[in-house]
Amino acid sequence: MSEAATARSGGAAWLNVALTLLLTGVLFNLFCLVSGSAPITVYRALVSTTIASPYGLAQLLFKATPYLFLGVAAALAFSAGQFNIGLEGQLLVGSLAMGIAGVMLPPGTPGLIAVALLCLVAMLAGAAWAMIPAFLKHRFSAPEVMTSIMTNFIAALAAGLLLKPFAVSESTHTAAVPKAFMFAAIDRLIPATKGAQLSTAFLLGLLVVAGAHWLLFRTRFGFEWRAFGANPRAARLYGVETRRLMFLSFAISGALAGLAACVYVLGAKGFHEDGFSGGIGFLALGVALLAKNRPLLVVPAALLFGLISYGSLAINAHVPKEMTDILTAVIMAAAVITSAKAKR
Amino acid sequence: MTSLALAHVKKAFGGRPVLEDVTFSVAAGECVGLCGENGAGKTTLLRIIMGLERPDGGEVRTTASLGMVHQHFSLVPALTVAENVWLGREPMRRLSFDRDAAAAQTVALAKRLGMTIDPQAVVEDLSVGQKQRVELLKALRTETELLLLDEPTAVLGPQDTDAFLELLQTLKSRGIAIVLVTHKLKEIARVCSRAVVLHKGRIVADQAPTLAALPALADAMVGGGGNGEKALAPRVPRASAPSAEVRVQLAGVGTGELSDASLTVRRGEIMGVAGVEGNGQEALFRVIVGLDAPARGTLSLDGKPAPASPAKLRALGVRAIASDRHIDAVLPHMSAGENARLGHVTSDAAIREAMERFDVRPLDPDLAIESFSGGNQQKIMFARELGGAASLIVANQPTRGIDFLARDRIWSALAALADAGASVVVISSDTDELRALSDRMAVMYRGKIGEALAIGEWTDEKLGAAMAGA
Ligand SMILES: Nc1ncnc2c1ncn2[C@@H]1O[C@H](COP(=O)(O)OP(=O)(O)OP(=O)(O)O)[C@@H](O)[C@H]1O
Ligand SMILES: [Mg+2]
């Protein structure tokens, strides 16, 4: 079918990403110069602490992992024309549910079953939380941009309160889940990465990317999903159950945002902790933007965000740490500019 | 004095030639009709003259001030007439938009052109005829000397078309040069002194559009072959008569602009719904295809209450052609093939076949929908919808902006479906279309549907009176 067309515009999307990176590079150099460091020294520091060392590389991939889930969550919602800005809240709710369920589950449960169950719990929690803006949109035509943003703040407050009875005393986190329930850490495989937080959650993230791509571009359901995003009125008239799809797109997006919690609860930390996310649910919107809502492009975009997020720690000595935020903002701006240019 | 001179203009899109060696000129006060098949290059040529597109070769010389009315409305529905007319060129008082000045200037402009219009009216409340007048005012706001009109009458009913053509006569007498694109040769004969025919990007005729010359011009439009008489919208032949069995029944339906609307359509029947646009046709369409549920009254299909859901109705074989494809039918930024997939064709082979059947040009399912000319986009809407079996086809303004051969193909397809037992409802403000196609016809007026009579019983007088509500 439109395979060729998809490929063609796919090419354009890659070009956009390349342009974005180029623009970011230029601006990054300028910032370095302004803050009094030679760009080359900063680059050297960046490279030697990230991709040049096994530990650094593993940390970069670890930082990129949640963006795989969240970036796909955002990209899917956006392709259906639903502006789910509530990923942060859906992630929080998913994490809390996963953390609590993790300590309630009989410790003797076989590992694989436990992981599957806990992932399901997090997905259900994220999806349920995403139903709030979906319902408000359906019932009152309330714009989901507003309502889904609000659910983030409500989630932050509610998760704090709900955590209390389950928190380990004198702390703001749940008890650790049994080791058997957790993803395999990278240092078990590659000793040189000792201490790195990367786990097999990364592979699950890649699986989510592949699954989303398959769904969106290889199935009738995915086609209807994109048609709904392209022109909801046409989709409805020509037989797409748009109401169902609206709820479903929020549910699936929310479920994937909730699932992202596994990176921490079943990977890096082993428990749910208040404030663990640091706003990645918001930054992930940028990942989707950079990836032009294409699941496969979420991978490079997530890696870039991972690089910025871990690399900024590495180059702290050379440039101020606010650099991260500035750079993220620059990338987003560049992504918007290059995609606007491509539209013309 | 020459207002427009084109010499050897050339243009290609992605290696595909669209215009070749186009040479003609237009004098001040002259109206030239530009016609040709869908995809012949008419819009592209106007865009080149307007400076919106760069020619690959040749020369374009124009007067300093030109204006264009585009193939699709470019008005902002929520703004007033005056605001729309002056959008982008707003009269200012210090730093703010001077609404009073805008209104006054709109009235003055309209008066000079012999029109009356309320500058404070909100555009979304206007009829299509009035909207088209606002477009015209907008194109004429800058002492325009050369006016480019891309199918301005395609959306208009007969009365609005008459009024619009009258206006063009006034403009001509004021020395404005006009290029009028239309698929209706009769309109060219009425207001133009010359007809320029484009075929596959080349000029194949440039002559006076006398009534006697029209069949030859029509023939030139489609590249010869003696098909010219189809331009006169002859009655579409049918293989079988409608059965007595009722398929669709509206009884006292009221929603939106519909009030107490009743209509029955039989199996194998083509029911024409005439009327000046804005008398509830859109509401009628929405109810029959399941977008709106009747607030009062009932809609039944084959004797059973019809579900108010397009998806469920489609499963029962209901097909829809929406009047405004940009709002209700096209998937923007997706390929023709993906657009076709939204309808009833699913396999790659079927998509190609359907496009071929309706002679979509270019025959390339991978091309983005925006790369097709307006008429070809509409053909794609038919190609995707009229595949496979159908029980009821509701077509709202189906052949707007479609050239006469393609129109004939679409009419034949609808007739074939009716012959096979499907019911067809054609809602149109084009009475020629309804006369060519319908078995029976009813007229809509203020949300009500009048009595449906056999098409032969509708004399012009009777039809005119019914459309005026008499
Ligand atoms: N942006 C574009 N990219 C690629 N091809 C284009 C583009 N715009 C127009 N074309 C092609 O140029 C040809 C001429 O198109 P144009 O819109 O000028 O036709 P037209 O004569 O106005 O037809 P219609 O009567 O259907 O409006 C068509 O084959 C169309 O597919
Ligand atoms: Mg055109």
Structural class of chain B: alpha/beta
Report the sheet with the most strands of chain B, covering strand number, pairing sense and barrel closure.
Answer: 7 strands, mixed
The termini of chain B sit apart by: 48 Å
SS content category of chain A: mainly alpha
CATH class of chain A: Mainly Alpha
On the 0-100 scale, what is the average pLDDT of chain B? 93
Number of domains of chain A: 1
Average of per-residue pLDDT values of chain A: 89
Low-confidence runs of at least 5 consecutive residues of chain A: 1-9
Q: Which parts of chain B are unreliable, with pLDDT below 50 for 5 consecutive residues or more?
A: none
Oligomeric state as shown: heterodimer
Task: Tell the overall outline of chain A.
Answer: globular
Fraction in beta strands of chain B: 25-35%
Number of strands of chain A: 0
Please give the count of helices of chain A.
Answer: 14
Radius of gyration of chain B: 23 Å
- CATH-derived topology of chain A: ABC transporter involved in vitamin B12 uptake, BtuC
Task: Give a description of the structure.
The complex is a heterodimer of chains A (344) and B (470). Chain A has 344 residues and is an all-alpha fold. Chain A is built from 14 helices and no strands. Chain A has a single domain (3-343), classed as ABC transporter involved in vitamin B12 uptake, BtuC, CATH 1.10.3470. Chain A has helices at residues 3-34, 39-49, 54-79, 87-104, 111-140, 144-163, 201-218, 220-230, 232-237, 242-259, 262-268, 280-290, 295-314, 323-343. Chain B is 32% helix and 26% strand. In chain B, strands 14, 17, 18, 19, 20, 21 and 22 form a 7-stranded mixed β-sheet that branches. A 6-stranded mixed β-sheet of chain B has the order 5-8-9-3-10-11, with helices on both faces. Chain B is globular, with a radius of gyration of 23 Å. The N and C termini of chain B lie far apart (48 Å). The complex binds adenosine-5'-triphosphate and magnesium ion. Adenosine-5'-triphosphate binds at residues 13-14, 18, 36, 38-44, 71, 361-362, 371-376 of chain B.
